[in-house]
Structures are given as structure tokens and as C-alpha cells.
Amino acid sequence: MTNRLRIATLGIHHETNTFASNKTTLADFKRSGLQTYAVQRGQQYYDMHVRSQTSMAGFIQSAEKHDFELVPLIFAATDPAGTISNEVFETLGGEALEMLREQGPFDGVLLNQMGAAVSEQHPDMDGELARRVREIVGSDVPVVMTLDLHANVSKQMADMTDALVIYKTNPHTDAIPRAHDAGDLIVRMATENWRPAKWLEQPPMVIGIFQHDTREMPMKAIIDDLEAVLSQHGIVGGSIGQGYPWSDVYENGLACYVLHEDSAEEAKKAARWIAERAWANREELYKPVGPSPTEAVEYALEQALLKPDDSGPIVLLDVGDNIGAGSSGDSTFLLAEAVRRGARSWLQTIRDPEAIAACLAAGIGANMTVKVGGKTDSLHGEPVEITGNIARISDGRFEDTGTVHAGWRFFDAGTTVVVESEEGPTVVLVTSRVGNMSREQFYSLGYRPEDFDVVVAKGVVSPRPAYQPIASEMVTVNTPGATSADMSTFNYRRVRDSLYPLDLDARYVHESGD
Questions:
Q1: Residue 480 shares a structural domain with residue 495
Q2: CATH code at 54?
Q3: Are residues 162 and 204 both part of a single domain?
């Protein structure tokens, strides 16, 4: 009888917007809008995910499939925000590495990362964690890292792991099958003493946020090319890193990664084929589009008068205040237009702890005037004054067992207050920056977004699984903010010297020069 494999899993999961003013500190990891507990250790890490649709849920299923012992060490994840403090990485990363030392030896390590984490000391925080893990377990123990499609994949990530496995979908709905892929690979490596040949190709180009939906062209073409490569003889894995535009790091941009049974040359050939085809289409893959806030609100209100009553709301996607990409959650550009135009059937969230405190002091049922939003920085508009009834007060916790971006299930918006304003809009004030990825956020408060003419979702692609089924139309709005679709509005210092579209004359030269 053979001994069961022991495979550890750990992760520090964060999407870092280096242009956001709200830095990410250790205090931010004490709670998360995406999980009941921002930091999970041991059995709690298992329990939080076993009934979710996350990567860890896929690891658990893979352990059952292959009959290996999955040892959950630590998983830390909080809401996307600004640069991570060095204290976070050294404290949580240090704890994870100590667990890895003390609870080993292991036959493999599954790293559960996001792929766009940036700390004060380590611009490639994911790669640095992988390096430290490798230092502990040595070269003989397989290490596989799962990543979000928005990863800025680094050479260090590729070099310090034996395989990278990245979501193929955006909206992210395939965390579990990709985790199964990671499990299949690591078990084969551990039992057959085999390692795949690998190649990472990084053409100097960024994919614009308006083109990130993998179900639509032109991004779909890249995923189709990946699938074509995966069907080739000898190819045992492959991924696309779509990139995360709002991190000022060298690796910012598209990554094409291929695993071959035994030939690095074949892996390189396949990865370059995908990369070259994407490069040839770079202009279509970065194209800021969409109406301005003024144009979008005018259009939405006009369409609301024309659409049938049962056709569902017009959903405005607030690009510049994309909470899932690290923005503040308190942009007021759309709300200000709605108030100015007297929108009567309008539903949206605004993060504003200060306004919430004033509402709590007044109490439920009170009628009061309060200024909401626009308080984090100068990027997201001015506070908007509304007068209305305090209709709901909630602890802000809700759960979604359906299809949710990245598979999250347990959400915590913090203390939540609903103001039904005399100006017209219904404003849900939240404490935490929870992306509008679930309609349950509104259902839990007694509101049905289906019953409103206009709903604002602070995101671009992540809200689509929730709102596309009920929307009569979804409109991406080119709003300003920390997640603006226009890269020229940010001051990049660490990216490659020549990166399209920051340099329209950028040239794609292969690393080896050929």
C-alpha cells in the first residue's frame, strides 16, 4: 500500500491598483467584502470554500478525485485596493512560510494567488512568495500556482513554479475546472517524477478593459487560439494572462504561457503563435469606448421611457469606479447626473462610512439631508447632497450560491444604510468596497433591481453574471477614476520602456532576438 500524497495549499490573494489612494494595510486584512474572514487558517480555510466555486473548492474536489491529503495552511484575501504595505507581506507571508516549514514535508504545493499583488518592497509580490516557497521546499517538490485571468504574469512566477494555471474566462466562472487542471498536473509531477517543459511569452501590449470580456471579440479570439494550442499533440497545459492595467509594474500586459510534455522549443513555438496573433490585433484589443457620464445617464433615462415595463433595468457599468479593480467605490459622476435630471427609478451603491454614521445617529425612518460619496480622493467626483428617508439599516452580510464572478459566496458590505431620496435615486450606502457582483446585495435589503429603470454597477465585467440575466441593456460608461479605461491618464514609471498603447510605435521583439 502506497502512502497518500500530502499537498499543501496557501495563498495571499490581492489585486493591487498602484494608482489608488486607499493603501492596503494589515488592518484591511482583518475583514473582506468578499469573504466572511479575510484571513483563514487551517480548517477554517477548508470550511470557507468547500461549498463555494473558488479555486480552493476545486483543490478540495481534486484531493477527493486523486485521493491525496490536502493540507490547508493559510489563505488571505481582501478587497482590491492600493499598494500593499510591507508589513502585510512580511506578517502574513511570514506566517504562511512558517506553516510550510513546520507542517512539512510535503509532496507538492498549490499556491492560490491572484497574480497582480504589489507590495511596497516587492512589485512582483506573487513571484516573491513563490520564490520563498521554492527556497523552503527545494527543487524536487512540485509547485503549481493558480492565477486570476487579470494576473500580470512575471518571469519569476514562471521560473519559481513548475506550472501556472490561469482562469480562461472573464467574467471568471471557471475557477473550479482550472483548479482541477492544477491538481491533475501536480499529482502527475509528484507520482511520475515528471516536469513539463514551459515557455512564457510577453508581447509588449496591454488589453483595454473594454475588451476584457472573453465571450466577445476581440478577446475571444485569443482564448480561441489558446484552445487551438491546447488541442495539439504534446501540449499538456497553457494559459493566457490578460493582465491588470492599473498596476505600475514591469510585467503589465498580456502573457502567453504554454506547457509541453517534454519540449521547451514546442512550448515556445505555441506561445509565440498566440502572442504574435494577438500583437497583430493590438489596436482592436485596446480601444476606450463608451459614453461619458452625461451621455450615459441621458441615454438611460430616455430608453427607460421607451422600454416595456417587464424588460428589466438598464444597467450602467461604472468603469472608472470599478471596485473589483481597486477603486474607491464612492464615485459620484453618475449619481450627480441622476439627481440633476430627477431620475425617479434609480438604484446604486456608494461607499461612505461618514454618511452612514450620520444616518445611524438619526435612526431608521428619519428624514435627513446628507452628502454622499466623493470623499476618498479627487478622482471620483464631488459629494452629492440628497434628502430622504432612511429606509433600511443592515449589517451588510449576504450570501450568493449562484454563479458569481471568481466563485465568491460569502459577502460583507459592512454596516449598510438605504436612503430613498426625494430627488429620486435609491442610494445604498455601504461601509466596505464590495463590488456589485451579486443581486443578493439588494435582495437582502428588500429591493429588487428588476423593478428599477436604471441600476448602476461599479465594475466592467465582474457584474455581468449577476445583472446580464435581468438587464434590458448593459452600458459601459467611460467614467473618470482610479480605474479609468484611458491609460494615458496615469503616470506609469515601472512598465517596459516601449509598451502599447503608451507607446504607439512599440515593437514586439522576441526575448532571444529572433
A1: no
A2: 3.40.50.2300
A3: no
Average pLDDT, whole number, for the chain?
95
CB burial readout 220-257, b (16+ within 10 A) else e: ebbbebbeebbeeeebbbbbbbbbbbbbbbbbbbbbbb
Letter for the amino acid at 504? L
What is the domain extent for residue 370?
Answer: 293-485
Pick from 116, 103, 83: nearest CA to 12: 116
| Residues 456/434, Cβ–Cβ less than 8 Å | no
Q: Quick: pLDDT tens for 369-388.
A: 999 999 998 889 999 999 99
Q: Spell out the residues 6+ positions from residue 280 whose beta carbon is closer than 8 angstroms to its own.
A: none
Which residues on adjacent β-strands are paired with residue 70? 7
Residue 248 has pLDDT above 50, yes or no: yes
Per-residue DSSP letter, 376: S
DSSP state of 490: S
Residues 54 and 48: their CA atoms lie apart, in Å, by 10
Q: Are 265 and 309 found together in one domain?
A: no
DSSP of 99-166: HHHHH---SEEEEE--SB--BSS-SSHHHHHHHHHHHHH-TTS-EEEEE-TT----HHHHHTSSEEEE
489 Cβ contact list (under 8 Å, min separation 6): 480
3-state SS of the chain: helix, strand, coil percent to 5? 35, 25, 45
Q: Which residues contact 18 (CB under 8 A, 6 or more apart)?
A: 82, 83, 118, 246, 247, 248, 249
Q: Which three cell numbers stand for residue 485?
A: 479605461
The number of distinct structural domains making up the chain is 3
In angstroms, what CA-CA distances link 479 with 137, 152, 302, 335, 413?
Answer: 46, 24, 19, 12, 23
Helix axes 94-103, 125-137, angle to 10 degrees: 20
For the chain, the straight-line distance linking the first and the last C-alpha, in angstroms and rounded, comes to 51
2: pLDDT strictly greater than 70: no
| pLDDT computed for residue 68 by the predictor | 98
Tens digits of residue pLDDT in 450-472: 999 999 999 998 899 999 999 99
Average pLDDT of 304-320? 92
